[in-house]
Amino acid sequence: MTADLIGRLRQVVGPHGVIGDRDGMAGYLTDWRNAYRGTAAAVVRPGDTDEVARVVALCHGAGVAVVPQGGNTGLCGGAVPDSSGRQVVLSLTRLRRIRDLDLANQTITVEAGTVLRTVQEAAAAAGQLFPLSLGAEGSCTIGGNLATNAGGTAVLRYGTMRDLTLGLEVVLPDGRIWHGLRGLRKDNTGYDLKQLFIGAEGTLGVITAAVLKLFPAVRSRATAWLALPSPQAAVDLIGVLRDLAGDRLTGFEVMSRQSVEFVLRHATGARDPFDERHPWYALVELCDSLPLAGLDAVLESALGEAFERDLVVDAVVAASPAQATALWALREGISEAQNHEGPSLKHDVTVPVSRIAAFVAGTDRALSEALPGIRIVTYGHVGDGNLHYNLSKPVGGDDAEFRVRAADLARVIYDSTYGFGGSISAEHGIGQSKRESLADYKDSLDLQLMRGLKQVFDPHGLMNPGKILPG
């Protein structure tokens, strides 16, 4: 990239808006796990949508590729540049204004660099709820949540970011701004263009702002940690809870014993809620906007039926918000705790809920045959069929040897997922990690149509190249 272009970019974003030295760029060139690493010609940090548009237009005119980046908390390398040193990392973390909060319309309009927790807090201050919740909510940004169609722990009731978004503002690859910030719940005037950008990981344009749905604040909740005999018990238990609680069933997380053991071993202050070990656990939460909704009675009734049907072996119901927080910490600490056990091969798959038990049994068996002693860390949002199927090396195993097996082990999981009618990516995206695998598990016509969209929006291939679409 020429010094002239760097100079013109500085004119747009100011002298402190362009980072060109190696040390200054370091944090932008790798993901938080250090699993993916690249180089860049520069990191550019615009302060508003107009500056984003001007930066993208300049790069487009010079034939320089742009890699949009938010909180950089992704797990698939989708926001990391390649190794050429010719790409520009476009950091959106300065776009963090909350532009509007419309109580009558139950919407909040925020910029892409706004941290998720900030949106949650702004909604709460207005007596409302923005329900997206995930482990990285203190550092991930709304733009990244949209780019990967984040789901989180409340999908069962509220859906993914696709369901939570009414409108977008997007800078297209040539620098034009698509003004789609409409807070309409009904707009039947043709194609729903915003859906093209949600989940596209910045390959079709740069999301700069969004109109998001708000919901009534939660004023009562009931939380329980349950010991289960099997994944099938978890599937059956969801049916019991849905029948009795309806849409008040907000969260249902399942975890293998291996997952919980890592948290108990490495997370400060973590304690096992039970005296005995159990093969599987579930974290259940009911929520209501009414302050006296009788959720404890509903949960007690559901658990009574579950015990009668041998779906639950033991149960702890949180008696205070602090206890509920401690239970959630066991679930949310899994990903970080696993990193202390050496290389963590993370997989995010989804299968039909009715086939979860058979999928887990078959996949566990195939993995153990492929690598005896492998430690399988399975947890996720069973209510929507999404399992995080992560792998750790056998006890005493060599890190390098385990990393060499990553592709083979991934194929075991993906072949099984495909065989059960599932998807190799539920909510983490494709990025770099699953890009080449996509060709093996995505219908050829699907890929043809996706490539056609890419050609329409980004004919020169300058918007986050090397992500999603196989080479």
TrEMBL record:
Record keywords, A-Z: FAD, Flavoprotein, Oxidoreductase
Family under the similarity heading: Belongs to the FAD-binding oxidoreductase/transferase type 4 family.
Cofactor: FAD
Cited Gene3D superfamilies: 3.30.465.10, 3.30.70.2190, 3.30.70.2740, Uridine Diphospho-n-acetylenolpyruvylglucosamine Reductase, domain 2, Vanillyl-alcohol Oxidase, Chain A, domain 4
Name under which the protein is recorded: FAD/FMN-containing dehydrogenase
Organism of origin: Micromonospora pallida
GO annotation, biological process: respiratory electron transport chain
Gene Ontology MF terms: FAD binding; oxidoreductase activity
Domain FAD-binding PCMH-type: 36-217
